Amino acid sequence: MYKNYRPIHSDFIVHWTGRDIDQAEDPKWNETHSVKTNRHVTHLYLDRLKSILKFGLWMTTDEEESYIKYNNNTYKRPLVARTCFTELKLSEVRNHAANYGRLGIGFKRLFIFNRLGGPMSYYMGGRDNWFLLPFLDHGNCRANEVFTNFLKPMAKRSEDGTLEYKFYDESEWRIVYSHDIENYLVEHELDKICNYFVKAEKVPGFNEYITSCGLETKPDYILPIRSKWFSMIIYPSLGCKVEAEADQEIRSLINSIKCTKQPNSDYTELAGAEKHSKPIEINLDSCRHF
Hints:
31% of the residues lie in helices and 21% in strands. It is of the alpha+beta class. It has a domain at 12-62 and 80-119 and 170-178 and 192-287. The chain has a 4-stranded mixed beta sheet. It is globular, with a radius of gyration of 20 Å. The protein starts with 11 loop residues before the first strand and ends with a helix.
């Protein structure tokens, strides 16, 4: 079945974080791609990694995401908390990381599916399509029309008027959640899915972490990554990777998520072996070779 099979899409869906770290070090990082990953930056990235391994990924809301702009009109859609990923192949991620941060946390695709996530549906402004037509008929979508949060414009015009497929090139996937989504899942006896999401205020130790970091904002929900489908860590630099490999707290946290195979156990099936398969660890510069 897999002889000579060459996938077009990556099986790894990656969440990128750390834009705030790089912008604080060099406000023009996403233009110059030349930020120095010094000891201070390395420390901040390793701390970010530890918080993700301990607590999970942030699910945040953005008021701008509660509106769709189309043909000079603005339409309202449900405001949800979201976590974003990309399915770009590793060799293509450097520009993406420049915009969103250089620490990548990767998963197999089933991590997204199990949480009702999926790829964005991109539309071109000024051209109708079957997703937009019923939505535009009544101007404001109903609370259960969560699918509208998977709609995104594919292009924007640059300062010189050139049409650039900036957003389409991101190959974005999302996982979304909200109080209304939770009620819908419970009502339809799908409440097991709710266990994948935790209100940030109820995550043990998270409020103390926010306070210790001096952060003024916090997410609405946390998306724990304790899953057999957690499969990759991409570090911003080789030095950062080496530091992480020597950090016993990070090693312990990874082992608590992906435990070591027990002696005399047979895990010939891929799904069964996933829970013991340690995440691939690679640095960003090496990604260009994949």
